[in-house]
C-alpha cells in the first residue's frame, strides 16, 4: 500500500511538471506571436510613412548617431514611447511625423526655398551630396531640398501626454502626415523638443554650448535651431580633389549668408538659429 502511494505521488509529480512545461511553452509561444505582431505592425507604420513621403530611419542608423546618449531613454519608457531600453521604430515613426511638420513650418515661415534656388542657380557652382553619401539628417528631411536641411535631433519624449497623443492619432489615422493642427503644436513645443540636455542632470535648465562635431570646440547653443547648408567638395573617379576656381568666393558667400540668415531667422522665429556649413 505504501509503495502504491509513493508511485501515485510520483505520477502526480510528473503530471505536474508536464503541465508546468506546457504552460511555459504556451507563454513563450504567446510572447513570440506578440513580438511578431508588434514587428509586423512597426513595418506597416514605417511603410505608411514612406508612402506619405516621410523617411523613417532604422534604429541602427539612429543608434550610430554620436548624440544618441542625449535621448532620455528612461523618460521615453515612462511615456510608452519605447518598449525596450533603446529607441525603436515606434518612437522613430512619431519623431518623423514631428520632423515633417517642423520642416513644413520652417519652409512656411522662412525664405529657405528662395535661398535654395539661389544656391542652385549660382554661377559659383555649388555642389550637393549624392544620395548614397547623404547623412542621416538629409535623409530624414521632408523639405525636398538639395542644399538645406534641419540638423537638430528631436527629443519628443519632452512633449506633454496630449501632444504625444496628437502624433499617435496621426500615425494610426494615416496621411496626410502634415496638418495645420500638428504645425501649431510643433510651433508651440519645438524649443523644448530641440533643446539638447545634459545626461548627467536631465533637469538642468542652464544654457551651454555643445560640439559642432564630436571632439571639436563647443560652438552651438544647446537651445538653438540648427540648419545645415551643403557645400560639398568634388572629386574625380580616382578620388582626387577637383580644383574649383570659385572656392574662395563660395566660402565668402556662404559666410555672408550664414551671418545674415542666422540673425534674420532668429528674429522671425524668436529663438536662436545656427547655420552649419557642411
Query: Which class best fits the helix and strand makeup?
Result: mainly alpha
Number of strands: 5
The outline comes out as: elongated
Total helical segments: 9
Radius of gyration: 26 Å
Mean of all residue-level pLDDT scores: 83
Give the N-terminus to C-terminus distance in angstroms. 89 Å
Strand order of the largest sheet: 1-4-5
Q: Helical amount among residues, as a percent range?
A: 40-55%
**How many structural units, i.e. domains?**
1
Features:
single chain; 278 residues; mainly alpha; two-stranded antiparallel sheet; elongated
Structure explained in plain terms:
By secondary structure, the chain is mainly α. The strands form 2 sheets. Strands 1-4-5 form a 3-stranded mixed sheet, covered by helices on one side. The protein has helices at residues 2-51, 59-63, 73-78, 89-109, 112-121, 136-140, 161-173, 180-194, 247-269, and strands at residues 148-150, 209-211, 218-221, 225-229, 273-277. Helix 4 crosses helix 8 (180-194). It has 9 helices and 5 strands; from the N terminus they run ααααααβααβββαβ. The N and C termini lie far apart (89 Å). It has one domain (51-277).
Amino acid at each position: 500500500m505504501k509503495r502504491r502511494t509513493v508511485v501515485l505521488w510520483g505520477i502526480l509529480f510528473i503530471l505536474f511538471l508536464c503541465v508546468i512545461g506546457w504552460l511555459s511553452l504556451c507563454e513563450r509561444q504567446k510572447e513570440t506571436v506578440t513580438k511578431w505582431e508588434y514587428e509586423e505592425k512597426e513595418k506597416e507604420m514605417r511603410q505608411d510613412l514612406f508612402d506619405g513621403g516621410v523617411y523613417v530611419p532604422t534604429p541602427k542608423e539612429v543608434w550610430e548617431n554620436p548624440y544618441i546618449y542625449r535621448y532620455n531613454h528612461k523618460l521615453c519608457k515612462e511615456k510608452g514611447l519605447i518598449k525596450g531600453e533603446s529607441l525603436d521604430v515606434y518612437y522613430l515613426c512619431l519623431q518623423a511625423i514631428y520632423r515633417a511638420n517642423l520642416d513644413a513650418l520652417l519652409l512656411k515661415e522662412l525664405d529657405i526655398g528662395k535661398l535654395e534656388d539661389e544656391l542652385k542657380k549660382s554661377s559659383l557652382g555649388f555642389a550637393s551630396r549624392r544620395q548614397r553619401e547623404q547623412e542621416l539628417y538629409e535623409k530624414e528631411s521632408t523639405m525636398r531640398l538639395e542644399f538645406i536641411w534641419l540638423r537638430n535631433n528631436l527629443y519628443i519624449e519632452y512633449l506633454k501626454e496630449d501632444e504625444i497623443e496628437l502624433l499617435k492619432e496621426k500615425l494610426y489615422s494615416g496621411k496626410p502626415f502634415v496638418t495645420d493642427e500638428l504645425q501649431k503644436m510643433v510651433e508651440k513645443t519645438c524649443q523644448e523638443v530641440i533643446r539638447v540636455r545634459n545626461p548627467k542632470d536631465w533637469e538642468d535648465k542652464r544654457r551651454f554650448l555643445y560640439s559642432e562635431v564630436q571632439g571639436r570646440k563647443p560652438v552651438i547653443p544647446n537651445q538653438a535651431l540648427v540648419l545645415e547648408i551643403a557645400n560639398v567638395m568634388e572629386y574625380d573617379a580616382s578620388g582626387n580633389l577637383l580644383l574649383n576656381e570659385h572656392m574662395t568666393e563660395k566660402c565668402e558667400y556662404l559666410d555672408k549668408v550664414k551671418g545674415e540668415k542666422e540673425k534674420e531667422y532668429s528674429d522671425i522665429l524668436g529663438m536662436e538659429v545656427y547655420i552649419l556649413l557642411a
